[in-house]
Amino acid sequence: RMGARVSGRQGGRLAPLAIDGGRLGGIDYATPVASAQVKSAVLLAGLFAEGATSVREPAQSRDHTERMLGAFGAAVERDGLTTRLRGPATLRAARVRVPDDFSSAAYFIVAASLVPGSEVEIRDVGLNSTRTGLLDILKMMGARVEVGDLREESGEPVGTVAVRASRLHGTVIGGDLVPRAIDELPVLAVAACFAEGETVIRDAAELRVKESDRVEALARELGRLGARIEPRPDGMVIAGGRPVQGGRVTSGGDHRIAMSLAVAGLCAAGSDTVEDPDNIETS
């Protein structure tokens, strides 16, 4: 639609793909799901296109690209769930400090919430509100989480997260919270296993098309440890408070499943062995 030529199997729909550039034109694109990756790809192409390019989303996705382009001098406009820019655009060099990754910090935050007597402080971590749904969900579950030293660096909110162990209870996770916590939902499912009561995760069908089908992977592997998880097309229902035992589980090649299972092992009654953990190195 922007003027590039894409060839591949099934009319350019399947890899391997060959992309021939050319004179691109701006477009108005509505994404079928809230996807920062798709949004970013269209906006980056829009930098080199003639005219305006806009991306409309059904819900707010991560906005790191928009913030970074602004830091490099691009005139990015945001109006609700629509982001637009005009090309061709000229960027200027800038000094950038990349904050620590919130998704990586999430496993330590959840572990500290679950392991009795724990107290963890994570400094200089990125606290972009499009990424920190996990903090809101943990607070809904009764976690003791505090955010301090909040500031902005290179257009990104940065600060310190302090968390202490606490008794968690079940909750309902859905709607606008999901895109803000989609990568953290696996470890939140682990937290739900150790919480009192039932936790429902819905509106999260995207979990089934990640590096693995994370709904089935969590139900299967955590089930081996004694958890009870009912898979649903767009999420799962987790019965909390059941005894979770140690055991042998596998990541299925998915780094977020591997790290979530490791957190489960910290709280299980007995040792937990996670097979195929090498993928964690790429996380």
Automatic annotation (TrEMBL):
InterPro entries: Enolpyruvate_Tfrase_dom, Enolpyruvate_Tfrase_sf, EPSP_synthase_CS, RNA3'P_cycl/enolpyr_Trfase_a/b. GO terms for molecular function: 3-phosphoshikimate 1-carboxyvinyltransferase activity. GO terms for biological process: chorismate biosynthetic process. Keywords: Transferase. The keyword Nucleotide-binding does not apply. Residues 2-283 form the Enolpyruvate transferase domain. PANTHER family: AROM/DEHYDROQUINATE SYNTHASE, PENTAFUNCTIONAL AROM POLYPEPTIDE. This is 3-phosphoshikimate 1-carboxyvinyltransferase. It comes from Candidatus Segetimicrobium genomatis.
